């Protein structure tokens, strides 16, 4: 009888611990979604002290660090998380973002390529990954590559006028003027007040009228 009671007490303690841990994880994500990034990082740090192998804590922490513009720390933490779970696409993508904002373009590109190659079409960050790839290609003056990446980005998220502007710019720099006009026009359809889209369309129209 004593053994039975002891077993029941142990089971209850285990259930309470699991419940508490689940609530902590949920709270970290709630804090992140509420844009309370510092608080989310703190909760994740507490989780990792209790269990250094908790991948979910690394994910939410890295998301929060990037949104809080703590890119170097996000890079470090993402690398640590990937040592535990090397194929976690969320960590691969957020490591790419951290490197992107740190100006480590080659490293960022490597992570984004891994991410888009393995993520499903419904992946939450596929569009953003393609967009940042496009920006890197623009910096490298690889405008045809930028066109491909940014076209994929706007296909995933077609309502962001600023992305259409960048697609128009990549096409303009590549000399694909008619395609550039189409991109600038779409940006203006979404946001008629877009100065960059207006200026871009004027530049391209002038070149086509020569």
Structure write-up:
Helix content is 80%, strand content 0%. It is mostly helical and 210 residues long. The longest helix has 32 residues, at 2-33. The chain has helices at 2-33, 37-50, 55-67, 71-84, 89-101, 105-118, 126-139, 143-156, 161-173, 177-190, 195-208.
In short, what is this structure?
By secondary structure, the protein is mostly helical.
Secondary-structure blueprint:
Elements: H1 2-33, H2 37-50, H3 55-67, H4 71-84, H5 89-101, H6 105-118, H7 126-139, H8 143-156, H9 161-173, H10 177-190, H11 195-208
Helix pairs in contact: 1-2, 1-3, 2-3, 3-4, 3-5, 4-5, 5-6, 6-7, 7-8, 7-9, 8-9, 9-10, 9-11, 10-11
Low-pLDDT stretches: 6-25
Largest sheet: none
Cα distance, first to last residue?
A: 96 Å
Please tally the β strands and state the result.
0
- Average of per-residue pLDDT values: 90
């Amino acid at each position: 009888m004593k053994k039975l009671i002891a077993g029941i007490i142990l089971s209850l303690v285990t259930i309470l611990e699991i419940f508490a841990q689940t609530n902590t994880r949920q709270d970290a994500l709630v804090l992140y979604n509420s844009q309370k990034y510092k608080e989310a990082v703190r909760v994740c740090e507490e989780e990792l002290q209790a269990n250094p192998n908790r991948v979910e804590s690394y994910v939410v922490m890295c998301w929060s660090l990037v949104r809080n513009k703590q890119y170097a720390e996000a890079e470090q933490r993402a690398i640590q998380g990937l040592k535990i779970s090397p194929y976690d696409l969320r960590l691969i993508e957020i490591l790419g973002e951290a490197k992107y904002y740190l100006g480590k373009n080659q490293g960022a590109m490597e992570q984004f390529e891994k991410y888009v190659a393995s993520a499903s079409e419904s992946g939450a960050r596929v569009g953003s990954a393609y967009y940042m790839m496009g920006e890197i290609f623009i910096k490298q003056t690889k405008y045809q590559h930028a066109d491909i990446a940014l076209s994929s980005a706007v296909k995933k998220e077609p309502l962001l006028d600023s992305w259409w502007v960048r697609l128009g710019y990549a096409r303009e720099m590549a000399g694909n003027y008619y395609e550039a006009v189409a991109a600038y026009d779409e940006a203006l359809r979404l946001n008629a007040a877009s100065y960059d889209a207006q200026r871009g369309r004027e530049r391209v129209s002038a070149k086509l009228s020569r």
